[in-house]
From TrEMBL:
NCBIfam families listed in its UniProt record: PRK04000.1
Annotated PANTHER family: EUKARYOTIC TRANSLATION INITIATION FACTOR 2 SUBUNIT 3 FAMILY MEMBER, EUKARYOTIC TRANSLATION INITIATION FACTOR 2 SUBUNIT 3-RELATED
Protein name: Tr-type G domain-containing protein
Record-linked CDD domains: eIF2_gamma, eIF2_gamma_II
GO molecular function, one term: translation initiation factor activity
UniProt xrefs under Pfam families: GTP_EFTU
A GO CC term attached to the entry: eukaryotic translation initiation factor 2 complex
Record's keyword terms, sorted: GTP-binding, Hydrolase, Initiation factor, Nucleotide-binding, Protein biosynthesis
Source organism (scientific name): Quercus rubra (Northern red oak)
SUPFAM superfamilies listed in its UniProt record: P-loop containing nucleoside triphosphate hydrolases, Translation proteins
Taxonomic lineage of the native organism: Eukaryota, Viridiplantae, Streptophyta, Embryophyta, Tracheophyta
GO biological process: formation of translation preinitiation complex
UniProt key word GTP-binding: yes
Keyword hit for Acetylation: no
């Protein structure tokens, strides 16, 4: 173990053929499952990600001013369970940021001396809910292994983007969905029960038919431990191939170079996405496709791959 409480990752000593998505050497530092947050605008998608991971995914100035997600947001979280079997559910499940050590102490009263076991390292893809940002949401859906469908309890169900996002993940053949009935702290019990029935009626015949519906308050972090338990038990870890040549799907990228940089100071860019197979290493040479896309003289499309090197 390193002094930070994380497993060492030394590829010169690791046998990649023996690794799987739940290997301690892997999930200590790397998320191995992608879970998206989908649903109508202002139903609490970013808030629930923050409640689980502690990370604020709404970062850009125009997002903060309007209090909506515009670009895809990302946050990693580790989900633990107390190793003491007598520790009561669902409090025995706990989520922290990805920098947390692998075996922290349990914080449930009476079990403070017990250690917790790392069960999942999750990467959350926080999708925008506004109708004009559906293309951005579809980009995020391309890498999802499961989804949290947020439905605000203080509004009628379904709202327009609730239906559209559910249809989108159905097209993507996403099988594993957990429905979160958010903002239950704002309504009376009978209203919550009536809306729960409306949700069940709405999901009949869809890919979410039979999915668990968890009442939560993301703002107050109520029932977040239940959400963690359902993520562990209801969303299976996908098969990951660490042996084949690496292949990564990129869903966003951005430039880290400041205006006025000299040519020899240019450092390239940052790509975000999901590694579909293989392992990427520092100093490894990669090919980015389609690369530079231009129109030729005849009006046809010409793609020139970009060749680069991983620096971090």
């Amino acid at each position: 173990m390193s002094r930070k409480g994380l497993m060492e990752q030394d590829l010169s000593k690791l046998d990649v053929t023996t690794l799987h998505p739940l290997s301690p050497e892997v999930i200590s530092r790397q998320a191995t499952i992608n879970i998206g947050t989908i649903g109508h605008v202002a139903h609490g998608k970013s808030t629930v990600v923050k409640a689980i991971s502690g990370v604020q995914t709404v970062r850009f100035k125009n997002e903060l001013e309007r209090n909506i997600t515009i670009k895809l947001g990302y946050a990693n979280a580790k989900i633990y369970k107390c190793e003491e079997e007598r520790c009561p559910r669902p409090m025995c499940y706990k989520a922290y940021g990805s920098g947390k050590e692998d075996n922290p102490l349990c914080d449930v009263l009476g079990y403070e001396n017990c250690r917790m076991k790392l069960l999942r390292h999750v990467s959350f893809v926080d999708c925008p809910g506004h109708d004009i940002l559906m293309a951005t949401m579809l980009n995020g859906a391309a890498i999802m292994d499961g989804a949290l469908l947020l439905i605000a309890a203080n509004e009628s169900c379904p709202q327009p983007q609730t239906s559209e996002h559910l249809a989108a993940v159905e097209i993507m053949r996403l099988q594993h969905i957990i429905i979160l009935q958010n903002k239950v702290d704002l309504i009376q019990e009978n209203v919550a029960i009536n809306q729960h029935e409306a949700i069940q009626k709405f999901i009949q015949g869809t890919v979410a038919d039979g999915a668990p519906v968890v009442p939560i308050s993301a703002q107050l972090k109520y029932n977040i431990d239940v959400v963690c338990e359902y993520i562990v038990k209801k969303i299976p870890i996908p098969e990951r191939d660490f042996v084949s040549p690496p292949n990564m799907i990129v869903i966003r990228s951005f430039d880290v170079n400041k205006p006025g940089y000299e040519v020899d100071e240019i450092r390239g860019g940052v790509a975000g996405g999901s590694i579909l197979r293989g392992v990427l290493k520092v100093n490894q040479f990669i090919e980015v496709r389609p690369g530079i896309v231009v129109k030729d003289e005849s009006g046809g499309i010409k793609c020139t791959p970009i060749y680069s090197r991983i620096v971090s």
